[in-house]
Each structure stands twice: as C-alpha cells, then as structure tokens.
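Ops channel
N.P.: pipeline sanity check, posting one input/output pair.
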C-alpha cells in the first residue's frame, strides 16, 4: 500500500511539474509573440516612413529642371542683401516648426571660396532638448543647404526652463557661371 501510495504521489508530482513546465512554455511563447508583433509593427512603420520620404523627394525633384531654368543666371557671387531675407525666412520657419523660440538672428560676413559662398547666421534660441535635436536634424536635411557650424548649449535659468542655445548656421550659394538659369 505504501509503495502504491508513493508511486501515486510521484506520478502526481511529475504531472504537476509537467503542467507547470507546459504553462511556462506557453507563457514564454505568448510573450515572444508579442515582442515579434511589436518588432514587425516597428519595421512596417519604418518602411512606410521610408516610402513616404521617397515619394516626397521624388515630388520635390519632379519640377527641378523647370525651376533651375527659371532662376536667373549668376556669374558672380551673391551678396548678403540678396541672400539674407531668404535665409532668415528659412531658418525662422525651421526653428518655429521644431518648437524653438528664436531670440536673435545676426548675420556674419559671407565667405567665398572656389565659387561657393557661405553665409553664416548666428542665432540665439530657447528650446527643449527634444526641440533642439529636431532643429539640428532638420537643419542638416534642409534645402537649400544649411550647415551647422557651431552649437553652444546652456541650461535654463531655473530647473525645467528651456535650454539657451547659441548656434551658427551657414547657407551656401554656388555661382555656376551658366548663361541662363542659376542654382541657389
């Protein structure tokens, strides 16, 4: 009787262990399936973004030849007075779209080398870290070309205040020497 009872206990114990192992395996598979679904959704979002960006680039380049033909020829370099309004509008709109507040914009003297003129613009902005990173990323991707030459970041006056940022952005213009059409 004790032998049969001992066998019965072992069988029940083994069954309990098997049921727990099966439950753990099913729980792991449920968790792993959720991870796979999230990774799949992230990949689909990235593909959708890349596709949307490619369509936007294609649409922007579609009318490029007509636009280049409409721009008057520039055999010499551009002056700040010609280029400054467009640059200030571009940089101001860029900063505003990122949630940064522009305190000042100060042009620096243009620099011309090898047919390319660089127009530096010093800015003082206040922005959150998120807005600042978005501003720097969009400045790098901007058309007409903008370069980020220098960035100085200081904390706000009080904890929780936006960052105080001084940065120098440069816009570029190339004199291409064509008899018709130009390239800003």
């Amino acid at each position: 009787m004790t032998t049969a009872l001992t066998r019965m206990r072992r069988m029940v114990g083994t069954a309990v262990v098997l049921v727990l192992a099966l439950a753990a395996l099913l729980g792991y598979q449920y968790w792993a399936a959720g991870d796979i679904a999230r990774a799949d959704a992230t990949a689909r979002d990235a593909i959708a973004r890349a596709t949307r960006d490619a369509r936007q680039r294609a649409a922007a380049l579609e009318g490029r030849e007509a636009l280049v033909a409409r721009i008057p020829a520039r055999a010499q370099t551009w002056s700040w007075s010609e280029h400054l309004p467009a640059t200030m509008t571009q940089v101001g709109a860029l900063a505003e779209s990122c949630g940064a507040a522009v305190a000042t914009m100060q042009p620096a003297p243009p620099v011309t080398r090898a047919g390319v003129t660089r127009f530096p613009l010093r800015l003082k902005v206040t922005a959150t870290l998120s807005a600042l990173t978005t501003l720097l990323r969009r400045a790098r991707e901007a058309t007409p070309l903008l370069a980020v030459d220098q960035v100085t970041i200081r904390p706000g006056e009080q904890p929780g205040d936006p960052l105080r940022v001084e940065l120098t952005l440069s816009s570029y213009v190339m004199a291409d020497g064509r008899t018709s059409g130009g390239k800003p």
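N.P.: looks fine end to end. The first strand starts at residue 101 and ends at 107.
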